[in-house]
Design brief:
It is a single chain. It is built from six helices and eight strands. By secondary structure, the protein is an alpha+beta fold. Strands 1-3-2-6-7-5-8-4 form an eight-stranded antiparallel barrel. α4 runs antiparallel to α6.
Length: 221
Amino acid sequence: MITRIYFWKIPRRRALWAIARMALDRRYLKRNSAIGFWKLLGTGKGETFTPRDADATRWGLLVTIREVELKRFENSRVIRRWNQRATSNFSGTLRAISVHGTWSNKSPFAIDESASNWTGPIAAITRARIKTRKNLIFWRSVPPVTTALHQSDGLVNAIGIGEAPLGLQGTFSIWRDAKAVREFAYRGAAHQAAIAATAREAWYAEELFARFALVDQRGAL
């Protein structure tokens, strides 16, 4: 299996169309036997992880798929439909270097040994299901971390991703190299404080952190 991620920018007038496709495209993705795991994604600024972050003009899709079937999938009606209506798009091929945690009670990304010595750009996905009663304290803790993230040396770009307006939140980020990711994750004071708070408050019902070799990318995030 290989992981592909897509993001599309659309005109604001097509926001209702995009919301409808988020529901309708599920049928095709569920029935495609070549796909091992998929998530249709909303996006946001990734600053507060509250509904006010939401960006109605950018939408995404993540899939793991058999590599021999990728070309056919790229020509599917789902992908072509989004590409035709997008004003710009981004797509990337990801090979997993490290994965911790689960997503919807699944382990969707298999470690790819061919990426173990990768020295190029890194993509990182974080995702968490937040306990409802912990939302408020989580939101209060987020701003210092997101400020530190966007100021990090080596960060190329980062956006918020989500499966729902509340409670199911994450980030997708691109970094210059693996060293830049490690510097933020293990040496940044704000991030270390957030890790300590996570252990103390136990605000996640489920979490996942994954790093990937970004072996191919097209368009701008």
